[in-house]
Amino acid sequence: MAKKILIIEDEKILAEMYRDKFTQAGLKVYLAFDSKEGLALAKKEKPDLIILDILLPKENGIVFLTWLRKDSEISSIPVVAFSNYDDPATKRQAAKLGVKDYLIKTSYTPQEIVEKIREYLK
Amino acid sequence: MNPFAIGAFITGTLAAFFGVFVYFKNRTRMENQIFGVMSFSLTIWSINFGFWQMATDKTTAFLYVHLLMIGAIFIPIFYIHYILALLNLIQEKKKFLIAGYLITLIFLFFNFTPYLVKDLRSVLYFPYWPEGGVLFHFWLLWFLIALSYGLYILIKKIKESRGIKREQIKYVILAASIAFGGGLTIFPLWYKIPCPPIGIFIIFLYPLILAYAILRYRFMDIRFVLGRGAIYTLSFITVIASAFLLIFLNNLLGNPVPISIAWPLILIISILLFQPIFRFFEKFASKYFYYTFYSYQTVLTDLGRKLTQVLDLDQLSSLIVNTLMNTMKLDRTVVLLREPGDGEYIIQRNIGFKEENGISLVKDNFLTVWLGRTQKPLVYEELSLIIRDTTEKEEGERLEKLQGNMKRIEAALCLPLFIEAKINGMIVLGNKLSGEPYSTQDIELLTNLANQASIALQNARLYSEVKGFSVKLEREVEKRTKELKDAYEELKKLDKAKSEFISIASHQLRTPLTAIKGYISMMREKIYGKPPEKMEKPLENIYLSNERLIKLVNDLLSVSRIEAGRMEIKFEKLSLEEIITSVVEELKNEVKKKNIYLNWEKPKKPLPKISIDRDKIRQAIMNVIDNAIRYTEKGGVTINLKILDSKFQIQVKDTGAGLTKYELSKMFESFSRGAAGTRLYTEGVGLGLYIARRFMEMHDGKIWAESKGPGKGSTFYVELPIK
Lengths: 122, 723
Fold this sequence. Notes:
The complex is a heterodimer.
Chain A (H helix, E strand, L loop, with lengths): L3 E5 L3 H13 L3 E5 L2 H11 L3 E4 L8 H10 L8 E5 L4 H9 L4 E4 L5 H12 L1
Parallel strand pairs in A: 1-2, 1-3, 3-4, 4-5
Helix pairs in contact in A: 2-3
Chain B lengths: L2 H23 L4 H25 L3 H29 L7 H16 L7 E7 L2 E7 L1 H27 L2 H22 L20 H12 L5 H31 L6 H31 L1 H17 L5 H16 L4 E6 L6 E7 L3 H9 L2 H9 L3 E2 H10 L3 H17 L3 E7 L2 E8 L10 H85 L8 H31 L8 E3 L1 H19 L2 E5 L8 E3 L1 H17 L5 E9 L2 E8 L6 H6 L8 H6 L7 H11 L3 E6 L6 E8 L2
Parallel strand pairs in B: 9-11
Antiparallel strand pairs in B: 1-2, 3-4, 3-7, 5-6, 6-7, 8-10, 11-12, 12-14, 13-14
Helix pairs in contact in B: 1-2, 1-7, 2-3, 2-7, 3-4, 3-5, 5-6, 6-7, 8-9, 10-11, 10-16, 11-16, 12-15, 14-15, 16-17, 17-22, 18-19, 19-22
């Protein structure tokens, strides 16, 4: 059975690009464009991994992480922060909230991301 | 020689001396002229009195009596004339004066006739005492009338006058009382009344006191003269009384000591006794007469010393004014000072004067001009004399105006304050509460004090100017510091804004870059179908260009963080070898494209791990190797790693463009590029090596380059301590 990946990303172009790549790589992809939507989808689908952008409209990725960690139903889902916002303080906050990694988008090709995801899902 | 002869000679000598002295002091003044002739008549009387006392036969004695009478006859009229001159009453009492001279001439005419002096006879212990004729009674009457009349005018005038004139009159009354009081003791013997003419011994005080009155009346403290005069009188009386007591005792015991021995003996004893007796009285009197005088001098001298110790202008002025007021017992005092740079006069300290009055003195600048010219204190009482002696009409008028002004505001003395012979202020004193005038000692002390005060006030002013300047300077510094601080805050804000801008801009730039990178790489992975072969190369170029842009954005972000001090470092134990390998791996494509070599000479034995921040060291090494590749068109780049002096050293050696000395010194600074950069690689902004340097510094490492010159290639060294 294909692994479920939830991508929370407000940039539609990027979200669709990653969806195409991940789907092609054999993953089941869900897209959410903000934190609330992401949370609802996470609860509904119980994905195996969440790819989380940090700079999101209204509530940002950090807020999403606190919601997620409070909700016992979904709190154990691994999360990978995936953002171009390269701020040390934010990185520390994210690490505290238990993200598996904090990846800078421009540093990786979609193929490289797929490889990383495969590693996390092992 | 008997003591009366001695007394008479002393009086005569003194009278002559003072007469001549006063006369020559100011020959043009009537007071002085008349004083001269009056003293001359007194001298004639006393000298002949002395010779008469020494006469051994009747004829000689009679001659001297006639001669002394010439002097005596003139004394009353000269005395009256002198008083009238002193009081400026000559015009008013002209008729009386003329009548007096006529009377005098009449008596003179009868002098050598028996009508005035009938005969000589033995009275008391005088063998040849004269016996008065018919006219003698009239002459004595005239003498008494003249004396009384003189005293009468003097006493009447003393009530009307004040200041100096008053003092002058006091002296004259004193002198007249002493002299004529003494002179009167001569007359009882004419009527066979046995009263010794002891007054002869104090008559000499008459010219003495009058001389003082004329020459120094203003400058002699009345207490001083009175005290001194009183002591002399007392001493004389004591000595003479003792002498007579001894003679009386000798007589009573039937002359055990012959008279010829007794007289000289008594004279010697008297002379020897005079000094101790005088000292005794002086000591006795000094408690009252001198104590105040000396202490007052001391106080003013002390003030002079204190003046040099005070630097505050207000404090100094108060010290001067208060000390003068309290010591000299004045009714008012003001210190006026000129503003620096020949400015206006201002009242520095004032007690008693009305503010506008104090200033009114200097408003008419005649006073300052006058003081500047004379360089002497101006005494109000002196002004009428100055006006009288002034020949210039205009000046006289101005002096009169000044006199009126001083009188109106009740100023008695103006002390100029000089700095470098230029008047820069004055102390104006009111009258003494006692009504006494300023004495010579006062004026001398005040002049000295004014000199010291001038210097002290000038110092104080300089000090206050310096102090004011330093306060101003301090304020200026404070102001500038605040401006700098504000500017710094502003800069800090701008700097923060810049960092934020770069951070946000970078983030905004990264999103489209990510999309380009993602789609191109997916296209090259043939996810969207196999692209035509012709497109492979352009796709690769787009990809590499995009990578370059991504790197640029990363550099900008790094620099902005470094400069904002917000770069954080995270140490891990890592293998430097592995990092270099991954960098070389990443740059392989680039090298292949340029057709140059990239030799990574790995160490033969694996080296220990090292505590470093992976991303930063990787970025630094990447930047150095990337830089070498970029500037190398032929040959290639060789990398090696070794341990040298307990440090890791990475060498990146190229066969490229080489570097000038200037480039070597500048290339690790922000936003600078080697000259070759413009030639060979126009996209770089020179951030790479700067970032590498800063990252190395964060690791306590070093980065530098060596080159034999342009075209001769370069070697970059990166050194990291083993930690």
